[in-house]
Structure formats: C-alpha cells, structure tokens
Amino acid sequence: MERRDVSSSGKGSLFLALALVGAIAAAPATAAAQAEPKGPHPRLLLDDALRATWKKQAGQKGSAVARSIAACDQIRADPKESARDYYMGLTWAGHLGSCLVAWAATGKDEHARTAMIYFQAMLDDLQTVGDGKGGDEAARRDAGFAIRAMGPYTALAYDWLHDYAGMTEPMRQKARQRFKAWTDWYLQKGYRARDPGTNYQAGYLVAATFIAIAQGGEAGAEGGRFWKHVADTLWHKDMARVLAKGAILDGGDWAEGWQYGPLSVAEYAVAARAMRSAGVEVPGVGRWLQSLLTRFVHSLTPGGKMFVVGDTDHEQPYLDPNLLVLAAVVLGDAPEAAQRQALGEAKRLGLTSKDFLFFQALMEGRGLKPEQVPRDRWPTSYRALGIGTLYARSDWSDRAVWTAVQCSRQVEADHTHPNAGNFVLSRGTDDAIVDPSPYGTLSSLTSNAPTVESAQLPPDYKPSQAYWSEKTRFVWGHQTGSGLVVARCDYADQYKFQDRPSDVPEAVRDLVVWPHGGDATAVVLDRARSGDPKRGLHLRFRSPSTLTLDGDVARGKVGGSAVTIRRVASSSGKPEVKQYQRSDCFKGDVTRGNCDTARFASGAYRLVVPGPTMTAWHVIDAAAAGGGDPAVEPLNAKGLEGVKLVRGGSALVVAWNRGGKDLSVPAPPGATVVVLDAPADGDTTGASARKGSGGCDVAVKATGGDVRTSATPAVLHLDADCKLVEDHAAPAAAAAALTPAGGAAEAAEPDYAPAAPGAARASDEPRSPRAGCCGAQSTPSPPVAAALLVVGLLAIRLRRR
Q1: Does the structure show a pLDDT above 80 at 515?
Q2: CA nearest to 703, candidates 667, 662, 675
Q3: What is d(CA 675, CA 665) in angstroms, rounded to the nearest whole number?
Q4: What is the rounded distance in angstroms from the CA atom of residue 529 to the CA atom of residue 454?
Q5: How far apart (Å, rounded) are the C-alpha atoms in residues 253 and 736?
Q6: Is 555 helix (H, G, I), strand (E, B) or coil?
Q7: CA-CA distances (angstroms) from residue 681 to 376, 646, 674, 777?
Q8: C-alpha angle 589-593-597 in degrees, rounded to nearest 5
Q9: In terms of C-beta density within 10 A (0-12 exposed, 13-18 middle, 19 or more buried), how is residue 724 classed?
Q10: What span, in angstroms and rounded, lies between the C-alpha atoms of 709 and 195?
Q11: pLDDT tens digit string along 153-204?
C-alpha cells in the first residue's frame, strides 16, 4: 500500500530534518543501554499493589473487577455461546482479559483454566474455539488489524500465567513461535507499522511491546533483537518523534478522529507504562497524557458530546464521550492530579466500558480518589497544536456558546478530511452549525470548509482541497478576555500537488465568534485568488435544521434556537439551500473531490463565488427562537470592508483593512471592534477613538495612538464615552506556537527486518479502493464494523469500502 509523500522541501525540510535528527539522536541512549527483560513473571502491569486493589474491588458491586469476574463465570458456564469470535480476535480478547483480571483478583483456578481456553484459541483457532484454522497467518486479517487483539492479550496470558500449572513449556514455545510469525509479518507487510499516530500502528505497538517484555530472555537471540527493535526503533525513534512538540500527537487530539482514537490512546498509554516498568523511559508521555485530558474536556459540546475530528459513520453530529480516553490518562504515566481528574470526569459523565473491561479494571486498579476537573479555574479555550484544532467556549455551563475550528496541514494518517477552515458552532445544547461529513469522505464540500478549484489537481480531486500541504496553518487563533473567538486559517497550500507548489496564491478564512447574552453570532470572511474566472470559491454552511432561503438569508430552527445564515456581501455568486438525507460518497459518479452529501439529514447553505478574485462576508446567528435577528449593516469605505452587528445593548464591528494603511472605523459606543490586518509596527498597532456624529470614530494606525494593542488581530472595546480598552488575548489551556512544524519526514527503514529473502514490503502492496492519485489517501479500507469495534461496540457485520 502506497504512502503519501509528505516530505518537505527547501528551508522547511532542512529545519524538520535537523529537528528530527536531534530528537532521535537524543533519545535512544537509554533504550540501547537497557537490557532485555529477563526477570520473574509477571512483568506486565500486574504487581502486588494492583493485586491487592483488585482483591478489594472484587467484592464491590459494579466495579470493573466484579464485572470481569461475573463475565468470566458466565463464559465458563456457557462455553458454547462464548466459543464464537465475532471479529478479528476482539471477542476472545475480551473473554481472555476478563478471566485474567478475575484470576488475578481471586486466585481461583477456574478463572485461570477459562483464560487458558481462550489463550490457546487465539494461538490456534480462527472463528470457533477448536476449529484449528488460525495460527501464524491469523494476525494478517484486514492488513493486520487483528494483531491488536491477538498480540497483547496472548502476551498478557503468557506472562501472567507463565508459572501456572496448566501453562506447559510446549505451550509457551508455541506462543513464542506465533509471536514471531505475527510480528515478523506485520513489520514487513502490516499496515502503517512505522506510522505512529494511527490506529493500526497503535495496535501493532501494544502487541509488539507486550510480546517483547513477556518473552524477554526466553526467545533466544531473535527475541533479543526484537526487544531492541521495540525499545530503540518503535519507542525511542517512532514514538518519540510524534510525542515531540508540534508533532501529530502534540495537544492530545487524534488525526483519524475519535471513532478510532479511544482504543488507540489507551493502547499507547498502557504500552508506555509497560515500557517504563521494563526500564525504558519515553520522553513526552506524561505531557501527552495530560493534554489528552485537557483536550477531552474542551472538546465536549455543552450537550456533553465529543467533537469527531475525522471519520465516523455515527448518524448524529457528535460522538458520545468514551471512557477509554480517560482510562488512558489514568492507567498511563500521567501526573497524578491529571489521573484523579480523569477519574472524576468519568464519574461525572457516568462512563463505563462493556467491551474493554480490562482497561477499566486497570483504570480503577490505580486506587486513586477521583477529583473534579477544576473547570472554574481552567481557561475556556484550547489549541491542540499537532493537528490544528481550536476549541473555545463562553463558559462551562450547558448554556455556553461553543465552537471548534480546524486548520491543519496534511498529516500522515488515514480518515482525515481535506477541510482546513472547517468550523462548528453550538448555542448551549443546540448544535447550530455542524459537520455531517460521511465516513470516508475525501471532499471539502461535505463540511463547512471553504475550497477553491485548482487547475493542477487531478480531475477527480476538484474542487476540493488536497493532501500534500505543508504550510496550511492558523495564522492566529485564540479567545479574548471577553470571550470573543478570533481565528485565521491560511489554506492556500492545500492545493499543492505532490512536489508542485500550490497554484492558488491566496486562500484565507477569517472567523470571529461573538457570544453575547446567551446567543452566538459568527462573522466569516472568505478571501481567495485563483486567477481564473472559471475557478471559483466554494462555500458551504451546514445545519441539522431544515433551511429555507429568502434572498440572501437562510433560516432554520434547532431545538430552541433560530439559526440564520446571511450573506452580507460577496464579489459575485447566488446563494442556494439544499436538504440532504443520509448518504455516502461511494455512489454513482461521485469522485473524491466532488462529493456533496451528509451522513445524517441536514440542510446546507451553498454559494459559489466565481474567480479570479473572490471575497464573501457571512453572518451566522444562533439566538433564542422568537428573539429576532441582529441588525446587520455592511461597511464599505476607502480601504475598508466589514460588517456592523447590533442586538439589544451589544454591538460588534468586524473590519478588514484591505488597503493595509491607516484607517478609520465607525462603531457604536459600547461596541467590540475587530480589525483584521490592522496597520502594524511589528506585532502591535495603535488606536484612538473620539465621539462622532454617528457614534465613535476609531482611528487605527501603525504608530502612535492612545492604546497600543496586538495587531493579530486588533480587538478593542469601546465604552459609552468612546474610550478604548484592549480586549487582550486570554490565556489558553496550553501554550502553543502559532505555526505547527511541517509534516513528518519519512521514517527510516527498520533496523530489524527478519522477513525471508524476497518478501514484499508493505509499500509493494496494491493500493486500496480509497487510494487516490499517487497514493494520496491509501488505506486498507477498514470496514465500518471495525470502526465501531474500536470505540467498544462488538459489531458483527462487515462492509468494505
């Protein structure tokens, strides 16, 4: 399967190469000096403290340990019903995990015997206990997806039951032979074995880690080389790279989306904990786990749902929060305060896991007292730097105005969408603007992202963004002290094609989200240049409501909120609305770039602005139904474009300084004024205000002024007497550089390559049906059922894309 070429060029490539070399060179010393684990068993996770805690929890009704004991008893009582594995070893892995926990907590032989049944089944069988159809090739299913179930759980059983009377040396020898066959194949042909930050690699990593530790000192010289591969290559090269600042995991978001993220981050956390117990420290793990919790809390909508980020086939705008994300924080090596808060958040949300009891048992086995996340002391905005997502809310109540904004360069992960500039908006529990992109979309048109038609992209990519960008970024993105959210996404590089520079010289979206009186108003300015009248700017704003269009205004209703999408001005084009029913991007003559549908019933406002130079101003409002629209007035003067909004006693003026020179902005007393591209002296601009006949005249100059303020952008507040005060950028929940590092360099060839001579590399595999031109979106097409399994639903159906 081909991989996208995301290598950089010029100065960016040199910077990235130096940074990567530095990170790798600094890390491996500890691992290289760390001997292969050879101590007594158990070595993986199970120590005296965990045993003692589990023993106490065995009698606590509702605990994960008590549920594991009950599950193992049920499995033993009805072996015929439990004999079937429904998907890739995950059913048997659940059985084995439950019985291992039950045995560790009770010491009862019956639990060990039941665990041994599924240990042997995972070594030898495929679908039914005793069918003998598994073995060395069983982990190869679905490009190696099955290894995430087969590898770690059999390694746990090998380790925990190593000295159990029923575990004979021939059994251990067979297990070691299976371990070698599974991991040898995966390294050579498994999907994304060296691409951390992806769910397939997470499954391989936890399998390889547990196997290397469990069999340490018992698999001969080959086992020693495999340990070195795991410690030095997988952890101190691959994982250290993505845990670094600015890399894909920085900030705790998951590029593939949170249908795939929960199990993956739990696997990373528990594998890192196992490595530390084996004497190998991996820098950045604790900081990453802390960021997982911070992102989790900020990504929850006021209605308590989780922002998706990437692919999902869930037929609602957002996902239910998943315990495994918080479990990762607790069972990994996060700071203890973060672990307690993660436990408190799980308790507050009433989260539990039915299909991954092992992880919940480990989580509860820490024996920590839950603490509430101190929301009242936390900032209300957060930037997940690695994949460019900004989360912000007006407050922590369920009546808050909440938004998420995406602006990411291309990252080396599947299930990501070409949607730089995408955003969603909620007014309390009413999700006014949503992203209904179907599973597997490769189109910008299914989201709220803007896009410009490129001349150089392959025909089936048009008019969407592509997958080779290195420079796409938030130029700025933050929340101010008053709660205003300002973001600029520069996505012109989204039309880079392989090594060819983008043929779109300018593509920028500016977004201002204004929470006021419990209502939410967003001002959106889109600007682009294509150089061709036929290559236009395509805009979509999507809502779960039924939209009706009256001239330039589309209207709908979501819960108790009236939603309006208003074109204030555009260089050309005519708005339209369309209603969508549930569909996907794999039907009829749909190409990867022209899909324009939704995964659930929803409406969309649509506008195409013809080239060669395009601008469009929109105001999107979510207010209490029956409360009326804000007064909207376009501004157009020398060197100035903008919009003035007034509702009740509140006002907002957003002005774009299109001329780049000093300018004067008219505004009502008491208004908040946002000046985009303010004239600047360095990073600051000067502003003065005086009373005029129509209100306040705000003079914005590069030098001088009564107030010096940030120019990125300038955000000012006027009092009733036209006195100016800067609306400072508020502290975010985590500091983040404005510009993320470039895409990850191609990983070096592995230093452990045990495959037979002439064996094919993974890159020699044919591309999947989802692969585009030149492998731009190559993936083994994991079925929808696999996606659901990753979040804990053991689905039976299998539908390939």
Answers
A1: yes
A2: 662
A3: 9
A4: 11
A5: 14
A6: strand
A7: 37, 31, 18, 43
A8: 70
A9: buried
A10: 43
A11: 999 999 999 999 999 999 999 999 999 999 999 999 999 999 999 999 999 9
Nearest C-alpha neighbor of 269 from the set 402, 374, 152, 351: 152
Phi, psi (degrees; rounded to nearest 5) at 172: -65, -40
Return the closest-CA partner of residue 418 out of 383, 382, 452: 452
Helices (H) and strands (E) in the chain, counts: 19, 27
Q: What strands lie across the sheet with 430-433, from one edge to the other?
A: 381-384, 389-393, 401-406, 423-427, 430-433
pLDDT in tens, 95-117: 999 999 999 999 999 999 999 99
Q: What is the pLDDT of residue 735?
A: 36
| Residues belonging to the chain | 801
Is residue 187 within 8 Å of residue 752, measured between CB atoms?
Answer: yes
**Tokens read off for 746:** 């191609």
Contact present, 85 and 138 (Cβ < 8 Å): no
Question: Is the CB of residue 529 less than 8 Å from the CB of residue 611?
Answer: yes
- Helix axes of 48-57 and 90-106: crossing angle, nearest 10 degrees: 90
Helix (H) or strand (E) holding 181: helix 169-189
Phi, psi of 371 (to 5 degrees): -130, 145
Please, are residues 640 and 658 in contact by the beta-carbon 8 Å criterion? yes
Q: Which of 673, 669, 671 is nearest to 692 (CA)?
A: 669
Q: Which two tokens stand for residue 770?
A: 């989802």
CA dist., res. 213 & res. 215, Å (int): 6
Vertex 291, ends 288 and 296: CA angle to 5°?
130
What gap in Å lies between CA 544 and CA 524, rounded to an integer? 19
How much is the average pLDDT of 550-570?
Answer: 97
672-692 pLDDT, tens digit per residue, is 999 999 999 999 999 999 998
| 3-state secondary structure at position 67 | helix
* Kind and range of the H or E run holding 616: strand 613-624
C-alpha triplet 557, 560, 565: angle, nearest 5°: 35
Look at the block and give the residue holding tokens 């902005």. 665
> If you average pLDDT over every residue of the chain, what do you get?
88
What's the confidence (pLDDT) of residue 86? 93
Question: Residue 533 CB: number of other CB atoms within 10 A?
Answer: 11
Cα gap 444→449, rounded to integer Å: 6
Q: Which residues pair with 689 in a beta bridge?
A: 698
Q: Which domains does the chain have, with CATH numbers?
A: 37-376+786-790 (1.50.10.100), 382-629 (2.70.98.70), 630-732 (no CATH)
